[in-house]
Design brief:
The structure is a single chain. By secondary structure, the chain is mainly beta. The chain has two domains: 86 residues, Sandwich (Immunoglobulin-like), CATH 2.60.40; 169 residues, Distorted Sandwich (Glucose Permease (Domain IIA)), CATH 2.70.70. It is built from four helices and 21 strands. Strands 10, 13, 14, 15, 16, 17, 18, 19, 20 and 21 form a ten-stranded antiparallel beta sheet that branches. It has a four-stranded antiparallel beta sheet with strand order 1-2-3-6. Strands 5-4-7-8 form a four-stranded antiparallel beta sheet, with no helix packed on it. The protein is globular. Bound molecules: zinc ion.
Length: 274
């Protein structure tokens, strides 16, 4: 089925290998998601991450925001390692420079800093664990209706100091607006009160893909629950460090932060394709 779905996605760059043993499609750009097929008995590795491969040879991998222009995909066959060089397209990120701001004199106390660190570590740890099966066969959908108020990769430079790039897509909507699961999966994290992200929810979609939903008002599901695409899982809120009600929606591949809009383009909802 999955092969059938992707066969029709002809708009993407295709790299044909020297033999028909490795095909790579998708968005080969910073923050992008790639997918492909490889022949049996082959293993793949990228940047130290072992790539999941389905019984019929389907695989995915993610590309970070700051990826260099060339990546080496390691191909392991009969214990021999060869490399496939992949060209990664650079993107122009929105950079906003604000100078002359008064020095920020308020910094979190030690206890708060510790919590921030531990909560971040918990999220990172959960992202490293993923089902070795494809739960995202239906593709991905936007998890809420709302105005796009922030895009992936944008960065603010305050008084010359670069802040962390924005790691997801922001959708602004009133408190309580439905948030639905972007794809089928298993709930991998529910947290009621994180300092930065407030009420926080994560779903494992398999093969390394996790989605995250933050600043929520309510969460209607529990860790370990199976969810289906489109199922209402939460309500939009204003919890954690945020100035207005919105959903921050992120997708990662083994912790590599991806542009959700890229993932939705590469793996769209099946109904849209058929
Ligand atoms: Zn955000």
């Amino acid at each position: 089925m999955i092969r059938f779905i992707f066969f029709y996605l002809s708009i993407f760059i295709s790299i044909n290998g020297s033999a028909s043993d490795l095909t790579i499609n998708g968005k080969l750009e910073q923050g992008g998601l790639a997918y492909g097929w490889v022949s049996k008995d082959t293993k793949l590795r990228l940047g130290g991450i072992k790539i999941n491969i389905s019984p019929d040879g389907f695989f995915i991998f993610g590309i970070s925001r700051n990826s260099p222009s060339n990546l080496d995909l390691e191909i392991i066959t009969n214990k021999k390692i060869s490399k496939r060089n992949i060209n990664i397209k650079k993107r122009n990120w929105i950079i906003e420079r604000i100078d002359g701001l008064p020095r920020n004199t308020v910094s979190p106390d030690k206890k708060t800093l510790n919590r921030i660190r531990n909560e971040g570590a918990l999220i990172s740890q959960r992202r490293k664990v993923s089902k070795d099966s494809i739960l995202f066969e239906s593709g991905f959908i936007l998890p809420a209706e709302g105005r796009v108020s922030g895009v992936f990769g944008s960065q603010r430079v305050l008084n010359g100091k670069p802040r962390s790039p924005h790691s997801g897509l922001d959708l602004a909507a009133p408190i309580g607006t439905n948030v639905v699961a972007t794809a089928n999966g298993i709930v991998s994290l529910v947290h009621d009160d994180m300092i930065l992200t407030g009420k926080t929810l994560m779903i494992d979609h398999g093969f390394g893909l996790h989605s995250i939903y933050i600043h929520l008002n309510d969460i209607f599901i529990n860790e370990g629950d199976s969810v289906t695409q489109g199922q209402v899982i939460a309500g939009i809120g204003v919890t954690g460090r945020t100035s207005g009600p919105h959903l921050h929606f992120g997708i990662t591949w083994y912790g590599v932060k991806l542009d959700p809009q890229s993932v939705l383009e590469v793996l769209p909802n099946r109904n849209l394709v058929n």
